[in-house]
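Page 42, continued from yesterday. The earlier attempt failed because a stray header line got pasted into the input along with the sequence. Redoing it now with the clean sequence only.
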Amino acid sequence: MDQMRYVLALDQGTTSCRALLFDHDGNVAHLAQREFTQYFPKPGWVEQDAAEIWSVQRAVMEEVVAQVDAESIAAVGIANQRETIVIWDRETGRPLHPAIVWQCRRSADICERLRGEGAEPLVTERTGLRLDPYFSGTKLTWLFEEYPDLRRRAEDGEAVVGTIDSWLLWNLSGRAQVHATDVSNASRTLLFNIHDRDWDDDLLDLLGVPRVALPQVRPSSGEFCMAELPNGFTVPVAGVAGDQQAALFGQACFEPGMLKNTYGTGCFLLMNTGDAPRPPEEGLLSTVAWQIGGTGEVAYALEGSVFVAGAAVQWLRDGLGIIASAAETEALARTVPDTGGVYFVPAFTGLGTPYWKADARGMLTGLTRGTRREHVARAALEAVAFQTRDICDAMVRASGIPLARLRVDGGAARNDFLMEFQADLLGVPVERPAQTETTALGAAFLAGLAVGFWESREEVASLWRAGRAFTPAMDEARRASLWEGWRRAVGYQL
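This time it went through. Structure tokens are written below.
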């Protein structure tokens, strides 16, 4: 591997496709990014064009590969938006319906129907998830109920389905038409038994999904296919993981009890729970974090989801028009000593972990004539930290593992005020890595380990470096008072 200098990571997100070349030290050598179109055909519906996703992802891949000698690339890793589902023609490779995005709520009635039939205990026990339209399985149920011809074609083997990683693998593999996924993505479908690590026949029957249409499930680190780069040179695709599991790996959270939080449109907090799944208690989800090929090592995680984090700041900008940019919130928050008693519960799309209350709605409380935009901006940032503590507290209760520190990434993690307040509210250090591209880096690590670019997890862990650590400075009385106010504000929606 001496001549191999890079691992290529394809980071296929909800709104953009990115390609990054990482060197052996885990640094970004080259990066390209382009957005793609979002479609909202009905209230609560979110769709994407799978063909456009592939076109954009291929374009950014070609852009970065053109910067180096293709023979210097050792492997390709994929991190992808999870739960988004694609159906395509096995023969032609053309999508047969718009991709149904993880944010889409169109299968809410199906979830209610199944819950009414008493199906949720079985689903939760086998998958570690809840009956919620967030996950892929009921999106497929909706698709096959609405379009019986697609069901027939899937049953006959003419049509195949998969999450975005499967769609990218199919296209990257060219004429080989590799139809595969990894355990982390499979575990987000409502169709996968996380104990047996295989598609579950009872769940397939429950949701009406034919096994023949589903991809083969493989370890997250191991060869999936050979991808042809623009100059005709072929490179193994050797790592695949859902974006949040990839970020957990990229943050080197390899030991049970280690956890990370990704601050983006929402927040996704994952804790490594070791080689066995924990019961999904306290409103948390249990999921497969990754599986390493060769050794067969498997790691599981508890996960908590905040639906609205950075999106609350976007609403201040686009909805209320009280800020010009998200970056402005930090300076505004620092001009006031506190929120003046204002609490912002940004439940625009319901409340996630630990409440899972779909009909909750956003709320500002504690307003007075003295309330200014600075107080509201600060309250929006504090709301992100409050919701994160909700999940951290639930994880401590569910796991029995005390919180020692929190590793952070994502766009909003660059906000120093938010990170300082987060540390104060949790009472533990918050660590922001020097390399903030943790999702793509995790995919690169998984691929690089499979081909020997990195020799071991220990070598990977040695590459993690803190960029800045935020230590708590708030006294316990103030922390308790602020937390009591948040609990009271959330209580209005429960």
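Notes: The chain is about 35% helix and 25% strand.
Reminder to self: strip header lines before submitting.
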